[in-house]
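INFO  loader      accepted 1 record
INFO  loader      residues=223
INFO  predictor   begin
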Amino acid sequence: MELYEKETITCEEMKQLEKMAASKGLSTYEMMENAGTEAAKIILGKCPEAIRNPRAVVFCGKGNNGGDGLVVARKLNEAGWATVVVLVEGNPATEDAKKNYDLIKDKLEILDRREVPASGGFDIVVDAIYGTGFHGELREAGKAAVEAINKMGYQKAIVFAMDIPSGISGDDTGRDEPKNCVTADYTITFHSKKPVHDNPRMTDLIGNVIVVNIGIKEILKEK
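INFO  predictor   done
INFO  writer      dumping C-alpha cells
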C-alpha cells in the first residue's frame, strides 16, 4: 500500500506527503486553500438550521494551521456569515498564511486575543491555532486562547478544530490527558487521520473526526 493510501499516518508522514505532492505540482498554497475550503463546507453544513444569522469566530495561530483558519474565515464570510478572526500570537509568519491574511485583512473584523469578548456571543468557534507540528506545552497565549474557546463551547457554541484540537499532539497515544487543550465537537483533519484520532481515550476532546480531501491523493496517483 502506498503511503498516500493509508487511512492513518503519523505527522511526519504527513509532512512527507505534502513535500511529495508539492514536487508533483500541488503547491502548499493550493493545499492550504483546499484544506480551508473543504473545512468551511463541513462547518456550513453542520450549522443548525435554527441559527438564522450565524456568527463565527476563528482563532488563528501564526503558522500554516492558522493559514487554514484564515481560508475558513474567508469562505464563511463569503457565505454571508458574520465572521471574526482572532490572531492568537500575532500576525501570520509563514508565506502561505501571509497571503491568505492579505485577502481578508481589510474585509473582516480582526482582533488580538486580548480583545475577544468575554461574553462570547458566537454560534461557531474554529480552532486553527496549532496543527500537526505541535508538541510539548502550550505557551501563555495559547493557553489563554484555549480557555476562551472552551468557555464559548460551554456557552453552547459549536467548536470545530482544524486537524487536531490545539494542545494535543497528533502522534499522542493518549496515555496522559493533556493539561490544556481545546475540547472540540468536531475535528476536521486533512488527507488522513493521525494516530491521536484513533485513540478512544481522546474522543471526548476530539469529538467527531471528519477527514477531508486536499488533493494529495489525486496528484500522487496521477503522477
